[in-house]
Every structure is written in C-alpha cells, then in structure tokens.
Amino acid sequence: MFSVQTYQSRRSTLQKQVSSGVLLFLGNIENPINFEHNTYPFRQDSTFLYYFGIPAPYLAAIIDIDNDKTIIFGNELSIDDIVWTGQQESLKDKSLKCGVQETRPFAQLASYLQQAKKSDRTIHYLPPYQSSNKLLLGELLQVNPKEINPSVPFIKAVVAQRSIKENQEIAEIEKALAVSTEMHLLAMRTAQVSIQERHIAAAIQHYAYDHNCNFAYPPIVTVHGEILHNAYQQNFLKEGDMILNDSGAETAMGYAADLTRTFPVSGRFTTRQRDLYNVVLKAFEGARERLKPGVQFKDVHLLSARHLVEGLVDVGLMKGDPEEAVQAHAHTLFFQCGLGHMMGLDVHDMEDLGEQYVGYTEQEPKDTSTFGLKSLRLGRELQTGFVLTVEPGIYIIPELIDRWKKENKLSQFINYDLLESYRDFGGIRIEDNFLITNDGFRLLGPELIKSVEDIENYRTNHVQ
Amino acid sequence: MFSVQTYQSRRSTLQKQVSSGVLLFLGNIENPINFEHNTYPFRQDSTFLYYFGIPAPYLAAIIDIDNDKTIIFGNELSIDDIVWTGQQESLKDKSLKCGVQETRPFAQLASYLQQAKKSDRTIHYLPPYQSSNKLLLGELLQVNPKEINPSVPFIKAVVAQRSIKENQEIAEIEKALAVSTEMHLLAMRTAQVSIQERHIAAAIQHYAYDHNCNFAYPPIVTVHGEILHNAYQQNFLKEGDMILNDSGAETAMGYAADLTRTFPVSGRFTTRQRDLYNVVLKAFEGARERLKPGVQFKDVHLLSARHLVEGLVDVGLMKGDPEEAVQAHAHTLFFQCGLGHMMGLDVHDMEDLGEQYVGYTEQEPKDTSTFGLKSLRLGRELQTGFVLTVEPGIYIIPELIDRWKKENKLSQFINYDLLESYRDFGGIRIEDNFLITNDGFRLLGPELIKSVEDIENYRTNHVQ
Ligand SMILES: [Mn+2]
Ligand SMILES: [Mn+2]
C-alpha cells in the first residue's frame, strides 16, 4: 500500500469534486470457478484500490459527502474463522492503513444506503462489471439489476484523478515493466521449433509469479499474430513462423505493464518478414515522436497509419497517395484496431468506467461507426501524467481480405494480387508504454530490444 | 471430448430418471477480472461438460423431456467476429460431437422457457454458483434472483449418474494424477532453504501447464500446514520447516486430481516430525484398508480418527481410552476436518449440487452441529465406481488449543502441558485418490512416495 496520506488526499480531492451525496465503492469477491469454494485468484477492484488500497475481498466503502464521513463495510474474522485461516490483520487495522477510522459490518451497508435514499440524497456508484456486484447493487438499492444507473459525475471525477499518474504510481508501473521486459527476453530464449506456444506462456507466467507479480491480462503468445483476440496456445512452432508475444506483469499493488514483441522462431526474419517488421517499427517510432501534451491521440493514430501505408506502398501491397489512402481508411485492411490505450491499475485503464469518459470527451466523442476508428480506445488530447501504450501493427487476415476483395473495396489503394501471396503471413505488433511529460514523452521501464538486428542477434546468441 | 454415444447415453439415462418437464443446463461465461474484457481463464460448468462436453462459454441447453427434444442455445460467430477471432468450429459442429442436432440462438432460450412455463410444465434447473448464472436464471424465469429454487429430482438424478465413474472417466482422472504426481516430486526437488513458498507453486503450475493441464484448485503450498484455508505463499522456507503441498492437476477435459504430501525442507524430519508423520500415515493406511462397497465413509472417518488418537497417545499428546476419546470427539483438537470427499469433474465433486445429496442421503443426513463431523463432506455408504480422497491429518492450531485449554475441555484425553511445547509444530496431511471396486479399492494414478524413508531418500538425492 501507499502512505495513509496518499489515500486520504485522493479521497479528499474526489469528495470536493463530486460535492454532494454518498459515494459508494464496491470491492470484488472471490469468484467461483466450478463451485462456490473453488475460486479464481482474487483481484481487488481498481477504483477501490485507488482510494482505499486494501487488497481483500468482500469489502465496500462509502464516502458520505454530506456528512463528511468515510466508512469501510466488511466483516471481521470470528474466532471460528481464525481456526481455519490463522490469525490475520483485522479489518480495523487494514482500514487505518488507508486512513479510514470507521468500519462497520457488511450487513449494515444496505440500511445506511436506504436511509440516505429516504432523505432523497443521491447515491453515486460506478458501473459494475462483475456479476456479483450487479446482484449486490440490485439488492442494496432495491432495484432490478437491469435498472442500474451509474453516476456520471462520479465516473468523471474518478477518471480525472486516475488519468494523471502520481510519481509513486509511475514507479509501480516501471516495476511491472522491469518484470515484463525480462518475461519478453525469456520468451525469446524459450521459443524453438516444435514446442507449443503454451510452453512459452507457462515459462513467462512462472517468471512473473517468481517475481511477486501476476499476469496483468491473459497473454497472447501465438504464431497467428493476425488473430487479434487469440487465446489459443496449442500450436507447435515451426521454422519460418513469427511469434507475437503480447504479455505484461501486474505488480502486487495492481499496476500493469503491456508489452508486445514479434520475433522469428528460426532466429532470423525472412525478407518479407523483415520488410513488414520495419514498416511497423517505423509507424511505431513515428507515433512515439509525436507524443506530447495537447496532441490528440487520434491524430497520432492516423499519423501512424500514414507511416504504415507509406511502408506498404514501398513493399507493393498498397498503392496511390498515402494521405488519401488513410483518409479513405484503406489502412484498416492491415491495421484494424487502435494505436493504444491508457494504462495503470488496469491494462486498459478504467475500461470498466466507459471508454467515452476515459479515452474521449463530450466535445470529441468516439467515432463508433468507422471500421478501425471504432476500435481506437483512446482519441482525446494528451495531458502531462497520462500513461499509455503505443502499439501499431500489420495483420494479414485472410477472412477480411476475402471480404474486401469480393467487393473490390478501395482497390485504388490495395494491390490485391500481391496480397494473395501474403495470405499466410500472420501478424506483427510492437508495443511499448509511455508517460506523457511536460515536454513530450518518456519510455517507461527498461528499453526492450526491438530492431531487427537486435532481435536476431539476441535470438542467435541465446537459442540452443 | 468423449464419443457421441457417451453423451447421448448419459442424457438418455437422465431423461428417463427425471421423467417429465424441461431440464435446463447453464454453461459458464468468461468472468471479468477488473473489467468486462479482461477475463479469468474459462472453465465450463462440470454438469454441462458431463452431458454435452463442449468447453465453450455462453452456452445453455435444454432437454425437453415431454417433447423428447434436446437443444443447445448459443450464438454462431458472425463474419465480423471471425475477423477478430479467426475461423472457429461452428456451434453446430460442436453440438454434433455430443449428438445434439438442434441449435438455436441464445436469445431464444427465454421464450422457449416461458412457453413451457405457460403450459404449466416444470422447468428443472440446478443450483447456480456463478453470479452470472444467478442473474441469468432471474431473467430467464422472471423471478428475483433470491427466489431461485433448484429442482431436487434433477439434482438427485445428476448426482446418481456422476457419482459412478465410467472407465473412460477413471482414465482421465489417472491422467490428472500422472501429472500431479510429477508436480509433487518437482515440489520436493524445488524446495530449499530461503526460497519462498510461491516459488514452488509457480514451478508446479509451470509443469502442469506444460503438460496440457491446469490446477484443479488453488494449491496450498505452505510451511503452515496447520492453517487449513491457506492461500498465503510468501513465507520463506527455513531449516526445520515442513512443507505441506496440497495440489492437483485438472486435465483439458476437466477431470481433477487431489494429492497432498508433507515433507521436510531440510531433507530429514526431526524426531517429533517423524513421529507425528507416522501417526498420520497409520491413520491413512487404516482408512484405506477399510474402503469397500457397503461401508459408511463416516465410519472410515471415525476409524481413521481412532488411529490418530492411538498414535497421539503413544506420543503422549493424548491419553485415556482411544475409543472413548473418539466418541467424545477429542481427536478434533488435532483433526478438525473430514477424511475425504468425492472427486471427478470437480475436485470436490458436485459440491455445487449440495453436500446433502452428494455426500449424504436423506436416511443418513450430515451431522451439521458436531465440530469435526460438520466438516466431513462425505459420510454415506460407498458404492462401486465412487472416486474419493482419503486425507487424514494432524494440525496443531494455537488458537484452537488456547480455546480448549481455557475451558479445560476434554482434559481427560488431552495432555495440554506437553502440547504447549508443540504450539509451533505446524500441520501434516497425506492424501491419495481411490476408486471403490467390487472387492475393495484401487489406488488411482502412480504410487507417489509417502513413507518417511522414501521421502527422506528422495529429498536427499535430489536437493542441491
Ligand atoms: Mn495493449
Ligand atoms: Mn482433498
């Protein structure tokens, strides 16, 4: 946990921002896998962590702004419990560590809220994402779970605070990145012909766990990097394959890292692989150099797309004027998703609170209809203190090519004939994490190799 | 998956057993960790696996007994989905593999059920354990999630079937045990002074994952074996500690193993450790030899307790007549929990369906008030085809000793003075998995070393 003052000051800022009513924070529970007492690893809700820091299940908290009261609701262990669990720090003591003096049994939360409701005070709550909290909110507020109506002022105040990272948060993110960087090097050393993808995933999970971290998200470790939502890890690595490894650690305090590297199983890229890799690398570097406060991330995304198109024209897969191609969204045949997202206590930071508040503003809302832009999680103007990812890629998706080709879609920009010979090419992504600083950006964490030369040298020196 | 015939025949048996109404089966979903799209590893519901075998999320099924119709409800991937996920086997094809011809979109499930309800037909469903299915049932049946009322005939029919393991199921359990046995040997090789418990847990998870398995449950790997519900793995191993390792693999098809071994960090047990270890081993062997059809497992539990008391009397920690001590439940100061439980697709098999149906019968219900017996998950008469665990232990729990001692509880059987010098002793458990056969029992999986001599030799030969 951070200092008592950290949590007190975060809460006091929040309280001033929302100004009236009761702020309700629901912690997470231990979620059942296949029966009630066989549970997934516990992960506290990130907003609860941000304001209270306690990584324990079955807690809730309120900040009663009108009465200037902060209370944590949860149950102390009974003597019976202690027989089974051993002595544990009391809830009282845990609460004192985040500066909350008052704790009450969990069962008293409902009546507290109902009392407030009776006096026509507003109960502010955030959008629930775990079903258990949807059920709980229904009970607490005596509404149908379908009628849950989160508080926009509460969401906006939380987003405003959590978006600007404190130095101690950046230090935690860099801790996650130090471990993640080693995970990526280990993956490069582990990969070899005829092992399964899951073998690599298991090795890097082992490394993360040994270094007091977990995965921040289910890793993508695949020879089919073009499949963007890919959890399958049963393929065997073959000579000539590239591996796309998108994985990151989460520290014990909950801070994430999110790195992607793509490297050849055989130690050397083929000519085609090297050429497209360098196109992605140029798009990455072009985007990175543009990062600074006041810039719209949507523009950085489109700039990166422009670099991709220029490179694809050089390779011969695209043609025509790159600027016009980007305006026509022709790059989305190769780059279907977004350039990056906010990162912090969540790998997609605050995604539970709603992309429209985190990645966009009311003045500059998301384009939810254009293929490509509708998958861009972050579009807004950057501010000092934002932490975000930059992750351009080229993905050769046979199903998408077939659809576009059938319609002869944007054929003034696409060289469909040559593209046919790339059908099985796969996908390439390069991803690092950056802090926006007053005068630009800072790479977070150690520098992880990414040039063709560095990767080939590393692979050559480390593979048996 | 097993053969088409397997699933067809299981369903046909079930259908005959329940005889009328609609049987509703809810599969599991991908559960959110910290936001909707960051999810825990998917695990299908075990009963759904048993009757349909499809390990994919967002499915439900019905067996409409009155109309002799079986339908799987779920959504086929759209062409848009395929761009993100790659080509996947269709739901139709998956369903054919378990012999179900008819599939419908998930959204049609509610109206099917409401139709049946209107014609006053019974909709049978099982107790939901994941909150998502509590919410879903509420919506499907248009009732408050608190008014959910599972079908006892359905539960009983499922329990009757799943309790008797088929040969192919036993083969799967033995696959899980083959991997688990290696995990335990690896743990013994990995343990050494000054590493953290989590280091061992990470190593065995790595092994499981490399061998196409997952953990069947969160492993207990601890120097505090006396803490029965212990997920903490941050302790550093010290000379003189014992490690209790309760961990098991789950195969890709969902079958579990559940093994416990306790071994000394230093390679050799101390005299006290060896003596109590041998007491537990004798209780283990005594219980094992008693396993056969027709025997009440509650009696095996009490017999095992009697062996523990006899050993504890020899050591001097207990006194008086062992039979009387067990009748007075004096052994529960050392052995607070149950001797074992059913095992299969769940590590505590069918625990979601209710212990009163799985481990007990109406004629011989559970003793829910006596300390010790109230934690015995299995008490009923054994039948050929049951798979269960045997896991006696001795747990020296300071908090419990203090409570009993203050009341001078059962002091005719307990040597409280000597016990004081054992306060920091820890805990020992030995656990294997058995099949009940016509003429007794069969150890499942490979034999995993458990004598003091074998463990000390193995540790000595394998620790650097
Ligand atoms: Mn990312
Ligand atoms: Mn067990």
TrEMBL record, chains A, B:
InterPro entries xrefs: Aminopep_P_N (IPR007865), Creatin/AminoP/Spt16_N (IPR029149), Creatinase/aminopeptidase-like (IPR036005), Pept_M24 (IPR000994), X-Pro_dipept-like (IPR052433)
EC supergroup of this enzyme: hydrolase
Keywords recorded for this protein, A-Z: Hydrolase, Manganese, Metal-binding
Family from the record: Belongs to the peptidase M24B family.
Single GO cellular component term: cytosol
Protein name: Xaa-Pro aminopeptidase
GO MF annotation list: manganese ion binding; metalloaminopeptidase activity
Start and end residues of each Aminopeptidase P N-terminal domain: 2-134
Originating species: Sphingobacterium paucimobilis HER1398
Catalytic reactions of this protein: Release of any N-terminal amino acid, including proline, that is linked to proline, even from a dipeptide or tripeptide
GO biological process, one term: proteolysis
Cofactor section: Mn(2+)
Enzyme Commission (EC) number: 3.4.11.9
Pfam family, one: Peptidase_M24
